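Consider the record:
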Amino acid sequence: PAFGLFIFTIARDPLRIIILIAGAFFWLVSLLLSSLIWFVAVKASDPQDERLQKGLLIFGVMFSVLLQEAFRFLYYKLLRKAIEGLVALSEDGCSPISIQQMAYVAGVGFGLMSGAFSMINLLADALGPGTVGIHGDSQLYFLTSAFMTMVLIFLHTFWGILFFHGCEHRRWWEIAAVVIMHLTVSGSSFCNPLYVGSLVPSYLLMAAAAAWAYLLSGGSAQNLRRFLLCKC
């Protein structure tokens, strides 16, 4: 269902597709840089020191989150300049897309690329060798990974809206909240294979971020009720 965001809300608008692809590229670059730094750190350390290797893994995850949010900020700056150019080129002096719409599309771009990489890693594990759970481990690995991929796509979408709103109105605490939520969700993955410890907090944060993003986008309880009742 997460990939339906692209089909139903973005696919018909060429400008939105461009913004989405650019957002996905920014997330990909952030992942490349963080992976490179983590790879160098691992190669420069003692591979026999398990405690050190675990510490480097935690450092790599946290650094990757911070780098992703830094690139989200850079992308906001780029889109802000793009809006100014679109306004200057338009005949009526108005941008064909608002900053709120850009925030949503950029968030979907980050989320879809993140989900794509999660699916690739999952499918690579599914090829074998071995069978999941053969040594008594949980057999819910693939199912929980799919649910985690979905929640990350939605979270990146909501985080994009919250982050851009914070940048636009200089509410730095909103940006800090996005970073903290991102760190929390990524850090909860270290609770695995106790999947309840990662899935439950992630979905609770997703619900909170969804409600927050909905209100910041101009939504109201009345509009939500009319939508659920299919009233125009």
Q: What stands out?
A: Residues 1-219 form one domain. Helices lie at 4-9, 14-43, 50-89, 99-126, 141-168, 172-188, 196-216, 221-228. The chain is about 75% helix and 0% strand. The chain has one domain: 1-219.
